[in-house]
Each structure stands twice: as structure tokens, then as C-alpha cells.
Amino acid sequence: MTQSSLVFWYSVANGAYLVGVIIAAVGSLGLYFLGNRVSKAKDDELRRFQTESAIQITAAKEGTAKALKEAADANKAAEGLRLDAERERLARLQLEARLAPRILTPQQQTAIVALLKPLGRFRAQILLHSDVTEVSRLSRDIASTLTRVGWDVAEARPSGGAIVEGVGILVSNKADDSVKKAAGQLATELTRNGVGAKLETMFLEDLPIPAIIGARVPNPQIAILIGTK
Predict the structure, then answer these.
(1) Can you tell me the distance from the alpha carbon of 183 to that of 137, in angstroms, rounded to the nearest whole number?
(2) 102 exposed, middle or buried (CB, 10 Å; 0-12, 13-18, 19+)?
(3) What is the pLDDT of residues 22-36, one digit of tens each?
(4) Is the CATH number of domain 106-226 3.30.70.2390?
(5) Does this model's pTM top 0.85?
(6) Which residues contact 115 (CB under 8 A, 6 or more apart)?
(7) How high is the pLDDT of residue 220?
(8) Residue of 122, 200, 218, 228 with fewest CB within 10 Å of its CB?
(9) Are 191 and 133 a contacting pair, CB within 8 Å?
């Protein structure tokens, strides 16, 4: 091979090398830009996903808050209805209690007798401060019960005096403790059995029994005043 041929092929080889280098550079540059485009696309997709997720999470939170508020409002409304129903029930029971006659059933009378009998025998004056049938019947029930206990009992109506409501049981503050205990027990048992009674201590030597129409117990230790409900 001549020297000129060697020079020619050397030149060709150098040219091919340069072409290869250029092609490699172009390929690398292409891969670089392609990689950047892929990375940017991924970043864009990630940002889109994050944005959509944030919107969905916000919507879910708002939906949850709305649902919780609606549930709270519903519970509040239900509680209001329950309270209204309970108030109506209590009002109805109170009305029924006011309208129902006060009585002592035979079973109740027997129970009261058993509790009062061990406390002793006393003198009691029953004063009816109303002429309605319900008051008269209750007076008979109480008188019958106390008679079975062994007390000396009489029923009468005051010829005048103050208006009395409910049942009042009076004792003198100077009465023996046994009298006060019996009067207190009687008030407790009448209340326990639905009649209701209030014990009052009078700061007098003797109980102020007014002029009456009916039977009188001499020197009563306990006065039982019965008025309307």
C-alpha cells in the first residue's frame, strides 16, 4: 500500500471517528432532553395527582363536617322531642295526681297500723276544713287507721277559721318526744302512701283547737288538719 493510500485511509478513519463522536454526542444530548421531558411529565403528573388529592380530601372533610353537623342537629332535635315528651308525661302525671282522690287502701292502712302501733297510744283530733266528699272520705280512712292503732280519735269541722290545703299534722313544741315521733311517723307514712302530709310544731302549751262541729277529743296531743288538694 502506498503512502498516499495510507494517508487516505487514515483520513477516512479520523472522519469516521469524528462522525461517531458527533453521533454519540447528539445521542447523549437527545437522551438528556428526553430524560428531562419524562421527568417533567412525571413532575406534572405528580403535581396534578397531589392537587386532585387535596381537592378530594378537602371535599371529604367538608362532607364529614356537614354530616357531623347534620347528625348533631338531628340528635339535638331528637333530644328536644324527648324532653318535650317527658315534660308532657310529667305534666299528665301531675294532673292525674291532682285529680285523683286521696285515699288509704286497706293494705295501706294495715301497713301504717303495723308501723304506728309500737309507738304507743295517743289522742288525736281530726279537723275537716272542707265539706267536699274527697276530704270526708280521707278523714274516715285516717280515723279508721288510727283507731286500729289504738289512738283516741274524733272527727269534726271547725265552725270557722283559715282555709287549709293538703294535710297538716300539728304537735306542741312542749309535747313529749314520743308524741312528736308518732306524729312525724304518721306524716311520713301518709306521704309515702300518696296522701301527702306536713308536720308542724306549734310553739304553744296546748294545741289551738277552734270551736268545732262534731266530736271532740279532750286535750288532744296531735291535731290533723285536712283541706282540699
Answers:
(1) 21
(2) buried
(3) 665 555 555 555 556
(4) yes
(5) no
(6) 185, 189
(7) 94
(8) 218
(9) no
